[in-house]
# Entry
Amino acid sequence: MKRLLIVDDNANFAFSLGVGLKRRNYCVDVAGDAYEAINRLEKDHYDALITDIRMPKLDGIGLARIAARLFPNITIILMSAYDFKEYEDKLKNKKAVQKIAKPFKLNQLTALIENTDVGEDEVKAE
# Structure
């Protein structure tokens, strides 16, 4: 069972996402900010870090940089309700970082976690 860490300052969104992923047989922890996430990453092993980009104090890109340096094998997925184009400069040198736009379908996220392709029909399905 893969262990995931969800990081989002919107507690309701993070909780709901965690419930959905637990129903798909993932072990899920939730952190409300990047510093809490760093503490959790240092204490436990995670297969994937799923973080919002826009957060107070330290944003998701900063968290992704730290996580990638400390845990080179972790899958990192950045979420944003905003256009990723405004972050392109910060993301240029980020290898192995995946992006997903909010709102998204749970199967789109699980495809990123599992490194599989989501078929076009699955993406468009309501």
Remarks:
- Residues 119-126 have pLDDT under 50 and may be disordered.
